[in-house]
């Protein structure tokens, strides 16, 4: 008879403890304020700093909102906007004239917007909502704002990367291919081998003007032009040997 009784009371104690530690606090933290942990913006943007809250009590005229700011460099938080029945945005200081109240307390919204964000606006924005009698719980929430310079350099770097990794290699490959097509190594060597006797013997023999050894170094296309000239000269000055004619046709 005693044992079941003890068991029941022990169970009750456990249940009571469970209720105290896990269920009891929930009616106390009846207000929950939430903000995005991080907001990123570019210089000159209009940034919405959203803040929403849920409360077991309906928002009344006693409900208040405070927005404060703590610079990235540190220092104490500074309250810059107070809402109580109506919003009191800052008229001077860092955010003077740049804060708009966007909230609708009846819908649990206490958002603001920051106009013309500057690089100096980096820091932590804190939204605090009090809705008496709900004044306990997580009444505050933080948003870290990061304002970056508005850079076309992001686009520029994209273009640079594109140029570097795609266009440059393809241009190089194209150039190499064109070079190979126009000046195949074998043919160039052949042409040198074939040309030198013609140059030395016939060029010297007939005294063709402007036809010197310097032109050995000339490029393939120049050689082609020279071949035509040579042909022209040879036709004028001498009957061309048939091998040389065949060579001139096959070249380039
Ligand atoms: C934004 O700020 C810059 C200087 O910080 C100012 O020249 C410009 O007029 C401002 N724009 C607006 C819309 O307030
Ligand atoms: C704000 O943060 C951005 C990104 O980290 C940085 O580029 C900028 O210089 C910071 N502004 C200041 C005033 O430190």
Automatic annotation (TrEMBL):
Leader peptide range in chain numbering: 1-30
Highest taxon of the lineage: Eukaryota
Family annotation (InterPro entries): Ig-like_dom, Ig-like_dom_sf, Ig-like_fold, Ig_sub, Ig_V-set, Myelin_P0-rel
Keyword vocabulary terms for this entry: Disulfide bond, Glycoprotein, Immunoglobulin domain, Membrane, Signal, Transmembrane, Transmembrane helix
Localization (cell): Membrane
SMART domains: IG, IGv
Membrane topology, record value: Single-pass type I membrane protein
Annotated transmembrane regions: 159-178
Alphabetized Pfam families for the sequence: V-set (PF07686)
Primary location class: membrane
GO cellular component term of the entry, any: plasma membrane
Domain Ig-like: 27-146
Protein's name in the database: Myelin protein zero like 3
Organism from which the protein derives: Haplochromis burtoni
């Amino acid at each position: 008879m005693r044992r079941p009784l003890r068991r029941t009371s022990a169970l009750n104690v456990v249940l009571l403890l469970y209720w105290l530690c896990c269920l009891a606090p929930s009616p106390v933290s009846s207000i929950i304020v939430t903000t995005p942990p991080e907001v990123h913006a570019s210089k000159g943007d209009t940034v919405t700093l959203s803040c929403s809250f849920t409360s077991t009590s309906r928002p009344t005229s006693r409900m208040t909102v405070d927005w404060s700011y703590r610079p990235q460099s540190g220092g104490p938080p500074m309250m810059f906007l107070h809402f109580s029945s109506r919003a009191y945005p800052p008229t001077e200081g860092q955010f003077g004239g740049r804060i708009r109240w966007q909230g609708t307390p009846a819908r649990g919204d206490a958002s603001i917007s920051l106009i013309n964000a500057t690089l100096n606006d980096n820091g932590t924005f804190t939204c605090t909502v009090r809705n008496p009698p709900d004044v306990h719980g997580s009444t505050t929430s933080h948003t870290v704002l990061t304002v970056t310079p508005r850079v076309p350099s992001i686009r520029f770097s994209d273009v640079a990367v594109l140029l570097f990794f795609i266009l440059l290699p393809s241009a190089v490959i194209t150039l190499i291919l064109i070079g190979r097509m126009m000046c195949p190594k074998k043919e160039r060597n052949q042409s040198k081998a074939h040309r030198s006797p013609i140059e030395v013997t016939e060029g010297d023999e007939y005294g063709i003007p402007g036809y010197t050894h310097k032109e050995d170094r000339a490029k393939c296309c120049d050689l082609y032009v020279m071949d035509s000239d040579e042909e022209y000269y040879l036709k004028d000055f001498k009957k061309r040997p048939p091998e040389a004619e065949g060579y001139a046709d096959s070249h380039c």
